[in-house]
Amino acid sequence: MLQNMSTTDKDIVVSVCANCGKEGTNVTNICNKCKMVKYCNASCKKKHRHKHKKDCEEYCRLAVEHAAKLHDIELFKPPPSLYGDCPICFQLLPTLDSGRRYTTCCGKTICSGCNYAPRYDNQGNKVREKKCAFCRTPLPKSNKEAVDRLQKRVEDNDPIAIYNRGNYYRKGENGYPKDNKKALELWDRAGELGSTAAYNAIGYLYEYGEGVEVDEKKAVHYFELAAMQGDSTARYNLGEMEEKAGNMERALKHYMIAVKDGNNDSLQIIQQLYSNGHASREDYKRALQSYQEYLGEIKSAQRDKAAAADDQYRYY
């Protein structure tokens, strides 16, 4: 019935009482389920309930389909660059954690290459004292000093610092008791301030039930919040969940987006999907090209030098 109605007819349905046809400002009662049909009063609403049932189901179905389409448009559109450029060499920061260093002195995130490079004074002399590569503040001399600096960043509402403090509570490290509830509170705060890693961490807790009840819907919700802001790990997690559910097309979409952001695990999965017949040769070829383009943006001689000297500086 709904498909055969003109736009004008639909406007009439939602602007007058569906039971008696009365128009005007007194049409205040609406169907609690579809929110589309109006009535003069509760009596008219009750009388029309049986007649409206079929159309109500159709309205709801179309509304759900429309909302799902809009959601998928947002979910699968190209995300923004998450980390941006290194503030020193102005080259794209790697997505791999070991390829970046967060500094508690100035709150900057610096690439592994710049962090590893030697420091020089204004006269070009090499400085032996370990200092921040960006602001030249001496590095913490103890773990306590590092934790104290982090706390100052937390007080300044630095989302990365808040997320890191949440990690301390989750693992029970650096003098903090193991407390998943406190970690969740801090990650929620960090997420609201822009930390995608925090939202991804919350999704992980709900997916595996660490300190909370297992809740797949909440896990997906937080993974999606992180993924739409550019977090490739969260995007990979969504792909994994879709793959487990048998939704191979949606899984592949997530993996392809994650590969563009340098997620090597997604590249390996796409290779497996190609071998198993769930991805085409063209899909795998595009994934390889995307990953190579990403490497071209992040690769540098200084970063290679850092990675060769210490595996902790590996960036891809």
Question: Could you name the key traits of this structure?
Answer:
316 residues; 13 helices; 6 strands; mainly alpha; 4% strand; disordered N terminus
**Overall CATH architecture of the domain at 148-229:** Alpha Horseshoe
Percent in strands: under 5%
**Quick one: CATH class of the domain at 148-229?**
Mainly Alpha
Mean pLDDT: 91
Please tally the β strands and state the result.
6
Structural class: mainly alpha
Helix content percent band:
55-70%
Here the CATH topology of the domain at 148-229 equals Serine Threonine Protein Phosphatase 5, Tetratricopeptide repeat
Number of helical runs? 13
Low-confidence stretches: 1-14
Can you write the helix and strand succession as a string? HEEHEEHEEHHHHHHHHHH
Specify the overall morphology. Answer: elongated
Sheet bearing the most strands, described? 2 strands, antiparallel
Gyration radius, in Å? 27 Å
Report the CATH superfamily of the domain at 148-229.
Answer: Tetratricopeptide repeat domain
Largest beta sheet: what is the strand line-up?
Answer: 1-2
Kindly report how far apart the N and C termini lie: 57 Å
Summarize the structure in words.
- This protein is 57% helix and 4% strand.
- The protein is mainly α and 316 residues long.
- Among the domains are: 2-75, no CATH class; 148-229, Alpha Horseshoe (Serine Threonine Protein Phosphatase 5, Tetratricopeptide repeat).
- Helix 5 (159-171) runs antiparallel to helix 6 (180-192) and helix 6 (180-192) runs antiparallel to helix 7 (196-208).
- It is elongated, with a radius of gyration of 27 Å.
